[in-house]
Write a structure and sequence with these properties.
14 helices; 26% helix; 6-stranded antiparallel beta sheet; alpha/beta; Jelly Rolls; single chain; 609 residues; TIM Barrel
Length: 609
């Protein structure tokens, strides 16, 4: 029987591939990085700046493959400049067909981009052994005439420029499918996911973290009263910390009751993190015994001196695993109470895992114990937590939010798209950048790129709130912005009162009173996007009832058309769009990501039907 099914699958595969040969599976399109060009030309046609030289060889070495009459050699500093006239302000992209030729492949040289004499970008141009198209990145410019310059700043830069192009940048669409990673998500969780995706890229949700434990003499409204008194508004998103629900010294600080009240009675959105503690003297710790909070720590073992080994958590039968299991059981109990009350939560567990890990040199390590054994252990820890909560305890009211950073190795900490709904960034002054009111657009675009624009991106923690107008102008549409508590909010060096009022009353920012009344409604259609100052519409979305294995076109049946559609999608046919539900339905080989193996499994399924 299996042999016959494979023969039938082979026949169907041939049929699908024949359809592709007939023209329905074109080669993958190359998406432009510049949406509308404002300047394109040979580098030698630009103004060559001091230190640059138009040539066809460097000393006696030739570099064939350039276009035009030659190229510009940015040797001991120098480069090229040109002028553009922008009819309207916007994000711009600068690219060059260039070549760095010194050292080994992969070695880099720093080049700098100036706009009207001010530095806007620096980029490391790598040695690729050939001419190639290189992006210097994106930056915002107002309408008007501007002088753009690229090249070395100082000396010994040695980059060759063949052509230069500049124009309005092709920004990400920020259109996220409203389907939670947890396919068994509660109706309220689906409704929240639909609302978040509907406002993402249109509005910024205001947020604020409350203090935890018994801070402010037990006044958990301190920050919120401050915001109300200053702006007349309250944030749409409130941050909570469940660290005190723990098996060591824990007590019930009524966070769960406040979360339920915030969502069900005040109509807000809740986000939750958890500073889980472990005993410093873990070797001498007996499971089940209380431990004073001063003998515990959430810091890495290098800082705290703890004998707790995070790598052992992912090993069954270890004492570390037993303590972690008890942590998960206790937090699951609280999430279960919220789930029974119909309360969904944006859950940001194991936050800032990479933290300081190799951020300031090889000796650096993660801030917290859950990241102190590196990315591979962390990813398994995340998956274990996800599986325990969703499968063991039946917790399905969570939208999963993962902290990542903008470092070269940050994607090593990504556990996989099927475990994540939102990617979060924690932005603090001097850590390592002093952002001021800058919207950190470069970080935003980096984080959007991590998921290929399939996950929302937020600022889950910050001190200085970015300027809302700049966020809009630069396309840095952070889903929500949530200052940390106490002076991170109230200190004027971070958020002056006038600025705070300006932010909270901006048409670009959604506050608590502007959230939809039916925010946690049926879960079948997204609520009103609540975009202030413009007409809004409500668009239908797919129901979780339409998640059927093999049903790529989501029409309720599995047919050969689904295989053809999947084949075209895998071939990156620009005319084929597969929804999130369809992609989920097409995941048939048990591995993350759609591949030809999923297509084969679908064809076998069809052959056996």
């Amino acid at each position: 029987m299996q042999k016959n099914r494979k023969k039938a699958a082979a026949f169907l595969t041939a049929a699908v591939l024949t359809a592709g040969a007939a023209g329905v599976m074109p080669a993958a399109p190359v998406s432009a990085q510049i949406k509308t060009a404002l300047y394109e030309g040979e580098a030698e046609a630009c103004t060559v700046t001091a230190g640059g030289e138009v040539t066809t060889k460097v000393y006696q070495d030739e570099y064939p493959g350039y276009s035009g009459d030659g190229f510009v050699w940015a040797g001991n500093s120098g480069g090229v400049s040109f002028e553009v006239d922008m009819k309207e302000g916007g994000m711009c992209e600068l690219r060059s067909r260039c070549r760095m030729y010194l050292g080994s492949k992969g070695d880099t040289r720093t080049q700098t981009v100036f706009a009207d004499g001010s530095k806007v970008l620096t980029a490391e141009v790598p040695n690729m052994g050939e001419w190639y198209d290189f992006s210097f990145g994106s930056f915002y410019l107002d309408a008007g005439k501007h002088k753009i310059e690229i090249g070395g700043q100082g000396s010994y830069y040695f980059v060759l420029y063949d052509t230069v192009s500049f124009g309005y940048a092709k920004m990400p669409d920020l259109r996220i499918e409203p389907v939670p990673a947890d396919r068994q998500a509660t109706p309220q969780t689906i409704a929240l996911m639909q609302y978040l995706t509907s406002v993402y890229g249109k509005q910024i949700l205001s947020g604020q973290q409350e203090i935890y434990g018994g801070g402010h003499d037990g006044n958990y409204e301190y920050e919120f009263d401050y915001i109300k008194d200053t702006t007349g508004k309250l944030p749409a998103v409130r941050g909570f910390d469940l660290m005190n629900y723990n098996p060591l010294y824990g007590w019930d600080d009524n966070s769960t009751e406040r979360i339920i009240e915030w969502v069900n009675e005040r109509g807000g959105i809740a986000t939750v993190c958890c500073h889980w503690n472990v005993p410093k003297d873990f070797d001498g710790y007996t499971l089940g015994e209380p431990v004073d909070w001063q003998a515990c720590s959430y810091k890495n073992y290098q800082d705290s001196g703890s004998t707790f080994n995070t790598a052992n958590v992912i090993k069954e039968g270890t004492k570390e695993r037993a303590l972690f299991d008890e942590m998960v059981r206790m937090i699951a109990e609280q999430f279960s109470r919220m789930q029974e009350a119909g309360v969904p939560v944006i859950f940001r567990p194991l936050h800032e895992a990479q933290g300081n890990y190799h951020r300031f040199g090889d000796s650096g390590t993660a801030w917290f114990w859950w990241g102190d054994r590196g990315p591979e252990v962390f990813k398994e820890l995340w998956k274990l937590l996800y599986t325990e909560l969703t499968e063991t305890y039946g917790i399905h009211n969570l939208i999963w939010e993962l902290n990542l950073y903008e470092l070269e190795n940050s994607m090593e900490w990504y556990p996989g798209a099927e475990y994540v709904d939102i990617i979060a960034y924690d932005k603090y002054e001097g850590s390592p950048t002093r952002w001021g009111k800058d919207p950190a657009t470069s970080v935003f675009l980096t984080l959007v790129g991590y998921s290929d624009d399939t996950k929302m991106v937020s600022i889950a923690e910050c001190d200085s709130i970015p300027d809302a107008v700049r966020m809009k102008n630069e396309g840095a549409w952070w889903l929500y912005v949530c200052p940390w508590y106490d002076t991170y909010l109230t200190d004027a060096q971070y958020n002056a009162k006038d600025f705070l009022k300006e932010f909270y009353t901006s048409d670009l920012v959604t506050t608590l009173d502007e959230l939809p009344a039916d925010l946690y409604g049926s879960g079948e259609t997204p609520p009103d996007s609540q975009t202030k100052g413009s007409e809004t519409t409500t668009e239908p979305t797919q129901s979780t009832e339409r998640l059927v294995r093999g049903d790529v076109d989501v029409n309720g049946t599995v047919q050969i058309a689904d295989a053809v559609m999947l084949a075209r999608y895998l071939a990156e046919d620009s005319k084929v769009v597969v929804s999130a539900e369809g992609r989920f339905n097409a995941e048939l080989d048990g591995q993350e990501g759609l591949t030809s193996n999923d297509l084969v499994e679908l064809l076998i399924m069809l052959a056996g039907s």
